[in-house]
Amino acid sequence: MKHFLYLLILLVLPSALWSQSNPNNALGLRFGDNGGVGPELSYQQALTHDTRYQIDLGWRSNRLDQANQNLFKLSAAYQWVSLLDGAFQYYYGAGTGVLYQNVDTGDAGAEAFSSTNLLFSGVVGVEYTGIEVFFGKPVHLGPDIRPEYGLGGYYNALVFDVALALRFGF
């Protein structure tokens, strides 16, 4: 049994150490106004050395003049990543998303309404990956701007979403 355990450690340890030095994933938060929705939960997955995709989920629930408003937004983007200098890199890309809005006035005489919108977006950002925490995994920290154009309902115009992202690589 001890030999099996030693063999297992010998086989698993090198791959675990290699994956720590080359994280392909990042998970964290993107703090911005998000076109009125608020902060987002953000996930990035590397596809190649120079490309990745990013998925963001934002939500907001608040009370507006005697009405309850709920917003949910899911967006995805394909990004190209290039090295600037050392631990600084920049990225740009394009994506799409969907936004759902529900407003309930709470008044029996007034009708609640909801809308679902399709979004098209671009993204440009800079990030710093030189901070390492949790077993040498990098922290991705940086600002970005994401112009979004919505079709109908809550988004019926061009909106510029400026944010600061904090993601942990793994």
How helical, in percent, are the residues? 10-25%
Number of H- or I-type helical stretches: 1
The oligomeric state of the chains shown is: single chain
Rg calculated over all Cα atoms:
20 Å
Span from first to last CA?
A: 31 Å
CATH class value: Mainly Beta
What is the total domain count?
1
Would you tell me the structural class of the helices and strands? mainly beta
Portion of residues in beta strands equals over 45%
Order of helices and strands: HEEEEEEEE
Which spans have pLDDT < 50 for at least 5 consecutive residues?
Answer: 3-21
| Cα shape | elongated
| Most strands sheet | 8 strands, antiparallel, barrel
Total strands = 8
Q: Any guess at the CATH architecture?
A: Beta Barrel
The residue-averaged pLDDT reads 84
Strand order of the largest sheet: 1-2-3-4-5-6-7-8
CATH T-level topology: Porin
